[in-house]
């Protein structure tokens, strides 16, 4: 009886150890994913700032295309 209780106790200890190891592995992977997401967020914020800067610089240079009439192709007479 005592031997079977010891065997059961050892099994439970091994299971506990394996479960803890699994949780530690999952925890490390989640930390890695969080770091990667933070790095991606930082890159996205940088890209958004760059795009906003480009938009603000180019705001006065935009030309409406609806009133531009093009007769013939771009490779027509006066162009060449």
From TrEMBL:
The keyword Coiled coil applies. Residues 57-80 are annotated as: Disordered. It comes from the Eukaryota. Keywords: Coiled coil. It comes from Xylaria arbuscula. Residues 23-57 form a coiled coil. The lineage of its organism: Eukaryota, Fungi, Dikarya, Ascomycota, Pezizomycotina. This is Uncharacterized protein. Gene3D superfamilies: 3.90.20.10.
């Amino acid at each position: 009886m005592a031997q079977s209780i010891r065997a059961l106790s050892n099994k439970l200890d091994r299971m506990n150890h394996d479960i803890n190891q699994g949780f530690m592995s999952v925890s490390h992977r989640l930390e890695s994913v969080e770091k990667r997401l933070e790095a991606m967020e930082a890159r996205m914020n940088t890209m958004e700032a760059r795009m906003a800067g480009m938009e603000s610089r180019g705001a006065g240079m935009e030309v409406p295309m609806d009133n531009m009439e093009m007769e013939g192709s771009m490779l027509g007479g006066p162009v060449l």
